[in-house]
Structure to design on (744 residues):
């Protein structure tokens, strides 16, 4: 767009007085910036409406408490209440466990599958599709399927365990197993999605490095350790951010499978916000929790882009 | 260039205009003599409730051509509540909505509903079953009308009873009998068939309430300001809930998913279940065995909480609309319609006179299971409803699950629940 003759003409018209090269650049530059900003305006309006405004409003609301129609200013009291709340602590701990459980495992599996499926072999397209397909199913549907996989006695998993003579626990009904059950399901669902990013990353790697490594007699694992893995780091960074934020965002399954139970054993932050806002109608508390969530997500992204980013070799 | 600018600006303006005009439609202003009222309702049970409501609305509009009813299907109960609250906050409250009967205190706390006592005469209210009205009233004041109401009943598999050598026409009447029958009905340690399933996700407070009512009385005060979570009878109730699986081994251990209990019953994996009457039509259509419905077995007495949704009328609507809304409420609660609603959905008919209509008389004589819930109403009481209901309910729910999953003892868990609930309810004490 900025290379059209019209732009040049316009820039020339604006600059008919002889000016220094520097200034000329600057002025035509700001003019072009204006145009760019104008093009960004629609998305900016939407971002403001649906992201910035709600964010600011949440921060504002977090200082108010009481029934929805009669909110009263309460300052930082509500923050104190929330931060000392037992359920809040449990939910944060659960979320950390959930991240530790899902992110490394699904990243590792995704990389493994991608390297494996990157080879040209019979049926690789079919295999890629089959690993990718859980991604296409909405999480709500996945939760409904896995609800019956985990059902005691006649669930798929229970039947399988009975087949090999073992007796499975009540996966979703017991505090010690419910988190593991959730983590397994999310790994199953998300690995295929991350695999696609790794496949794309692998396809962009330079072939000559591998050729010279081969001539040098490098073993496959050495090739992975010293070539593939470092070169894939940008992809890993990106996928990691997606995976960690997903661990905070994916809570739809809780609604179907456990409602956060038993006794908050599977409750996650976002679902806790939903409960506070839409079953307890405690908008102030929900706003405080939202501010916490926003802070966490922003710091994760900032850490990744500002710190990790510099350590990665592109 | 300039053209492009203006084109973009124009597009933007058109777009924004389209956005803003979208919101200004729905409100029920009166235009050209017709009054428009909004009616939100949820669909909580199987059956084509949305279609039934549409038909009701069409009939009503035929009778009252000057009133237009916008029936808005809001999804589940909680989704409907969300939409209604959002509408109220946006300064555009609906005239009527069907919401959980236990949302009463939340709605009162936010001061958004209209009192109904002056709108109808006493005789009209008296025709509704007392157990249902219990959730509509605070003191003498009536705040909602019972609409789609349910209660918990015992479903049992008559074929399984016969196989276990039990009389299929004599369901258990007491807790002792329940345990005794349960043991006889549990096959192979539960691997082939459990004696009983009481669901314990989502609605475990409701189930515990039933057990507490059977022992002594309800677990909260009528004004919604006090809970009795650690009273001896509540503890006895929860202990029994736990003992059924831990001690007597007639029920699976851990929590039992609300939604899978009916399918367990239908597929013969449990011989008895505690579940809502809202499932009656589902069980009736899908059971390929002979089944019975009975009162929940008694400890010291019979007892079961009611459940389901009531009609609420909202503040802040024009007088004309209010009149139309009252007319529509009366229409919906006419005995004939209440009877039909009960037949179509499986909900308990809310009015005594509905059971005197030919329609319901005939239905009940063909399908006697349908009448059990109504007879049990004599022993029924209101569902757990307090101020800050969501939070109090969650506190109690979590405590029950902590006990059922073996994380803490009955005493410890319920004492803590009571303490937490008292903290939440503190601002509401006089």
């Amino acid at each position: 767009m900025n290379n059209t003759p019209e732009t040049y003409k316009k820039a020339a018209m604006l600059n008919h007085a002889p000016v220094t090269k520097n200034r000329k650049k600057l002025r035509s530059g700001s003019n072009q910036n204006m145009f760019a900003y104008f093009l960004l305006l629609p998305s900016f309006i939407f971002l403001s409406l649906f992201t910035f405004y709600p964010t600011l409003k949440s921060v504002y609301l977090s200082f108010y408490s009481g029934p929805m129609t009669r909110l009263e200013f309460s300052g930082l009291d509500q923050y104190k209440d929330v931060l000392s709340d037992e359920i809040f602590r449990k939910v944060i701990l659960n979320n950390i466990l959930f991240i530790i459980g899902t992110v490394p495992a699904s990243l590792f599996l995704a990389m493994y599958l991608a390297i494996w499926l990157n080879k040209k072999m019979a049926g690789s397209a079919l295999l890629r599709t089959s690993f990718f397909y859980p991604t296409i199913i909405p999480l709500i549907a996945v939760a409904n399927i896995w609800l019956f996989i985990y059902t005691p006695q006649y669930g798929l998993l229970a039947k399988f365990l009975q087949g090999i003579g073992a007796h499975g626990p009540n996966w979703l009904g017991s505090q010690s197993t419910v988190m593991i059950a959730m983590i397994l399901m999310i790994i199953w669902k998300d690995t295929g999605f991350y695999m696609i990013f790794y496949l794309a990353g692998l396809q962009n790697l330079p072939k000559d490095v591998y050729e010279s490594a081969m001539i040098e007699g490098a073993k496959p694992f050495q090739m992975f350790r010293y070539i593939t893995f470092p070169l894939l780091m940008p992809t890993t960074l990106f996928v990691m951010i997606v995976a960690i934020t997903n661990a905070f965002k994916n809570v739809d399954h809780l609604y179907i499978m456990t409602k956060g139970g038993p006794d908050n054993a599977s409750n996650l932050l976002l679902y806790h916000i939903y409960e506070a806002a839409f079953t307890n109608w405690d908008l102030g508390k929900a706003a405080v929790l939202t501010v916490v969530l926003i802070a966490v997500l922003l710091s994760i992204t900032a850490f990744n882009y500002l710190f990790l980013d510099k350590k990665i070799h592109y | 260039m300039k053209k492009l600018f203006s084109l973009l600006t124009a597009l933007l303006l058109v777009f924004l205009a389209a956005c803003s005009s979208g919101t200004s439609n729905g409100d029920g202003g009166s235009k050209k003599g017709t009054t428009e009222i909004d009616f939100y309702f949820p669909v909580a049970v199987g059956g084509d409730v949305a279609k039934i409501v549409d038909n009701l609305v069409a009939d009503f509009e035929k009778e009252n051509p000057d009133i237009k009813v916008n029936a808005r299907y809001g999804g589940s109960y909680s989704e409907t509540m969300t939409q209604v609250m959002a509408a109220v906050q946006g300064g555009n409250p609906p005239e009527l909505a069907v919401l959980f009967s236990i949302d009463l205190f939340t709605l009162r706390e936010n001061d958004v509903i209209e009192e109904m006592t002056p709108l109808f005469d006493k005789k009209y209210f008296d025709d509704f079953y007392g157990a249902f009205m219990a959730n509509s009233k605070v003191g003498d004041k009536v705040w909602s009308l019972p609409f789609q109401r349910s209660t918990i009943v015992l479903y049992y598999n008559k074929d399984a009873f016969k196989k276990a050598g039990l009389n299929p026409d004599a369901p258990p009447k007491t807790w002792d009998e329940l345990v005794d029958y349960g043991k006889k009905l549990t096959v192979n340690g539960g691997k082939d068939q459990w004696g009983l399933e009481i669901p314990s996700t989502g609605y475990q407070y409701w189930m515990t309430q039933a057990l507490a009512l059977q022992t002594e009385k309800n677990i909260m005060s009528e004004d919604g300001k006090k809970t009795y979570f650690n009273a001896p009878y509540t503890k006895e109730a929860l202990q029994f809930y736990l003992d059924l699986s831990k001690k007597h081994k007639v029920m699976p251990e851990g929590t039992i998913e609300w939604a899978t209990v009916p399918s367990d019953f239908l597929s013969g994996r449990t011989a008895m279940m505690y579940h809502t009457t809202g499932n009656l039509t589902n069980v009736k259509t899908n059971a390929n065995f002979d089944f019975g419905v009975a009162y929940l077995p008694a400890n010291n007495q019979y007892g079961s909480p009611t459940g389901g949704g009531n009609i609420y009328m909202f503040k802040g609507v024009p007088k004309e609309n209010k009149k139309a809304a009252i007319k529509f409420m009366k229409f919906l609660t006419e005995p004939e319609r209440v009877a039909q609603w009960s037949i179509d959905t499986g909900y308990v008919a809310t009015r005594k006179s509905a059971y005197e209509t030919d329609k319901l008389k005939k239905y009940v004589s063909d399908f006697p299971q349908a009448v059990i819930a109504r007879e049990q109403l004599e022993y029924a009481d209101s569902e757990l409803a307090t101020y800050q209901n969501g939070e109090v309910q969650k506190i109690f729910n979590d405590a029950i699950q902590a006990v059922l999953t073996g994380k803490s003892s009955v005493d410890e868990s319920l004492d803590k629940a009571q303490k937490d609930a008292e903290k939440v309810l503190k601002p509401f004490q006089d």
In short: The longest helix of chain A spans residues 21-61. The radius of gyration of chain A is 26 Å. Residues 134 and 189 of chain A are 5 Å apart (CA to CA). The beta strands of chain A are 64-65, 72-73.
